[in-house]
Amino acid sequence: xxxxxxxxxxxxxxxxxxxxDTRGNVKKVADAGVRIAxxxxxxxxxxxxxxxxxxxxxxxxAAGMTPVQSLVAATxxxxxxxxxxxxxxxxxxxxxxxxxxTADPTQDISNLRALGxxxxxxxxxxxxx
Length: 129
Known about the structure:
This protein is an alpha+beta fold. The protein starts with 11 loop residues before the first helix and ends with a strand. The model has no long low-confidence stretch (mean pLDDT 88). The protein has 4 helices and 3 strands, in the order ααααβββ. Strands 1-2-3 form a 3-stranded antiparallel β-sheet, with no helix packed on it. Helices cover 33% and strands 12% of the residues. It holds the Pfam family Amidohydro_1. Residues 24-125 form the Amidohydrolase-related domain. This is Imidazolonepropionase-like amidohydrolase.
């Protein structure tokens, strides 16, 4: 995977119960330095739209990734895999799509659920302040 610059997308929320080795694989791949993208297949299966993405980030951390690794997989890692150079990082010339949280997800990945505001293309679309 490293030699061929292959990105690993585990989709744990689907495979976690049926494939018990998946969590161990995530840790091995992350420790080896392979690129990981958070992919939730959010349009399929159970759950509300977008909720699977939050669960996937939590499962990645439960599998041994750090919260920061999970956040990178969900942002720049996913944007790279989708060939979207306009997404995934905060930088000039990129889309202004952001979530503002009321708690630090680098300390506890479940803090991704502490939504304060959503900004889409520079416009506030959700404001829970």
